[in-house]
Design goal:
The complex is a heterodimer of chains A (about 300) and B (about 250). Chain A is of the alpha/beta class. Chain A folds into two domains: about 220 residues, P-loop containing nucleotide triphosphate hydrolases (Rossmann fold, 3-Layer(aba) Sandwich), CATH 3.40.50; about 80 residues, Alpha-Beta Plaits (2-Layer Sandwich), CATH 3.30.70.100. Chain A has eleven helices and 14 strands. Chain B starts with a helix and ends with a helix. The chains are: A alpha/beta (about 300), B mainly alpha (about 250).
């Protein structure tokens, strides 16, 4: 559905997006993770034909980004929820949606049906005649999502849709994205929120000007080798600490009677550690293996690229 | 360029203006001044000193008053165009609009219609009341209705639309460089200067506001309009708006 090949955008001497090659499948929720200034918004703007590319290629379906004729066609099949909701505050919720539906040549029946349907779904139908400027942040974000969907686009671009929302509003928005996911809508989701990406996205790309990693959340977690093991003892003493020191464990730390360290292969290596503790007279209460999380992957890749 | 789409943008702006009292004030203030104040001044001056308004000096005075319609036409769209574009900047509502299949030209034309149409309606309505009022006050002195006449016709139908266009194009350029409506209006005041200069030049008889004079002024302002059109349309492009506008 979305393909980029060596996509690059420079602003003067600053490279915002460098050599981005990726593929987003039809009907997939694709998470685009990265720190501030990583180039996420610039990428979305290029894909929405809002700004030009410096070099490389990108396609949305059969249409070429950068081709003036295709740009209008691309903008017909996409919907954008920008990072700033950008509602017309002096218009009612209904009029905001009606205006956009008219731009996309929706028939009167379609307009009425879609406005009712989306405002209902997002719990805003009762507020349809209220000025958008009086809405809370969460309500504005929901209205912006409804606006982006009003013409039933094939692809929805969302630029940090839950940023700056309170937990309840963020949950409503996430739940709505999950509803769209069930309908097999292609969604390109820019986010900082790792938990959100992990829960919603089929695949994730981590960007920091360059693409750092791409895959399913599970594949990305697998990429960062080294699993953390936590062993809880009845009592930690100097003899046990001496025995563990001899094993040269990575990132070994002590916290009360708890020992934490990293091993590449827990199944093979942990029994050696347990054996050393028992031989030193220690009593093991519990052994836990903690896998690397998406957060670990994200932080590792972003720090490496900084 | 699809006019229906430009009209859609303009219609939305009209809906917004309906709720903006300051826009209403900026639209009606000049027509009211022109249509009510000037006939009142003439009536009052005539009553105070009958020799002040003579058949010899009245036409010149009325032509000078007429030119305030042009100054009003240059002033009125400033507030509307500034609000229409800077208002969208403040609300950050341009980005979703630019992500639609509307072309830059359609959006810009829509914004221009939203500023031009109310201005022309208000100025023409004001001009009509002005003509009726002035004729009522001066008929006794002149023995005929001074308005309508060809000079005023040329002024209304040629110079006024050209002045409105100049103001709108200038507002687009100013709006791309400022972040609030007040600054846009402040910078927009500069548009007054050439028209005030013309007015004072006519008062000291450097130029004459007869048909020839008005056509020459219209030609010069039209040339400025063309230059402003190129600068304005270059400023109002997706890439510029999203990457370079303040």
């Amino acid at each position: 559905m979305i393909d980029t090949e060596n996509l690059t955008r420079k602003f003067g001497s600053l490279t915002a997006v460098d050599d981005l090659t990726m593929h987003v499948n039809d009907g997939e929720v694709f998470g685009f993770l990265g720190p501030n200034g990583a180039g996420k918004t610039t990428t979305v703007r290029m894909l929405c034909c809002l700004i030009s590319k410096t070099s490389g290629n990108a396609r949305i379906g059969d249409y070429e980004i950068g081709n003036e004729k295709d740009s209008l066609k691309i903008r017909k099949i996409i919907g954008l929820v920008p990072d700033n909701v950008g509602l017309t505050e002096n218009l009612t919720a209904y009029d905001n949606l009606d205006f956009y539906a008219r731009i996309y040549d929706c028939t009167e029946a379609q307009r009425k049906e879609n406005i009712k349907s989306f405002l209902d779904m997002l719990g805003l139908w009762d507020k349809r005649n209220v000025l958008a400027g009086t809405f809370s942040k969460g309500m504005k974000q929901k209205l912006a999502i409804a606006r982006a969907l009003i013409h039933e686009p094939e692809i929805l671009f969302m630029d940090e849709p839950t940023a700056s929302l309170d937990p309840e509003s963020a949950k409503t928005v996430r739940d709505f994205i999950l509803e769209l996911k069930k309908e097999k809508k292609t969604i390109f989701l820019n986010t900082h929120n790792l938990d959100e990406a992990q829960r919603i996205c089929d695949r994730i790309a981590i960007l920091n000007t360059k693409l750092r990693a791409m895959g399913t959340p599970e594949e990305l977690e697998e990429e960062v080798r080294g699993r953390r093991t936590v062993i809880v003892l009845e009592q930690l003493n100097d003899k046990i600490m001496g025995a563990l020191k001899k094993l040269s464990l990575r990132n070994l730390t002590y916290d009360g009677d708890k020992i934490t360290f990293d091993v590449a292969e827990p199944d093979r290596e942990n029994w050696v550690v347990v054996n050393a503790i028992v031989s030193a007279g220690g009593h093991v209460k519990a052994v836990n293996v903690v896998g690397s999380t998406l957060e670990d992957v994200y932080l590792k890749l972003v720090r490496e690229s900084a | 360029m699809r006019l229906s789409k430009a009209w859609l943008v303009a219609s939305r702006d009209f809906k917004i203006f309906r709720r903006q009292k300051n826009i209403w004030y900026s639209i009606i203030i000049f027509p009211i001044i022109i249509s009510v104040l000037f006939p009142t001044i003439l009536e009052y001056a005539g009553q105070r000193n009958a020799g002040l308004l003579t058949t010899a000096n009245l036409p010149n005075l009325l032509n000078s008053f007429s030119f305030f319609i042009v100054i009003g036409a240059a002033y009125t769209p400033l507030g509307i165009a500034s609000y229409s574009i800077v208002g969208e900047k403040v609300e950050k509502s341009l980005e979703p609009l630019l992500a639609t299949p509307l072309t830059d030209g359609e959006i810009l034309l829509g914004k221009a219609i939203a500023a031009v149409l109310p201005t022309l309606v208000a100025m023409y309505a004001g001009a009509t009341v002005f003509m009726v009022g002035v004729d009522a006050v001066t008929f006794g002195k002149l023995g005929y209705n001074y308005f309508p006449n060809w000079t005023f016709g040329v002024l209304l139908l040629i110079l006024v639309p050209i002045a409105v266009a100049m103001s709108v194009l200038y507002s687009v350029i100013v709006s791309s460089r400022v972040n609030d409506v007040r600054s846009a209006n402040g910078a927009g005041i500069l548009i007054f200067l050439p028209f005030l200069a013309i007015y004072f030049a006519s008062e000291i008889r450097i130029i004459s506001l007869d048909i020839t004079g008005i056509l020459i002024i219209s030609g010069i302002i039209f040339a400025i309009d063309i230059a402003l059109y190129f600068v304005g349309t270059a400023a109002f492009q997706r890439e510029e708006i999203l990457t370079k506008w303040k």
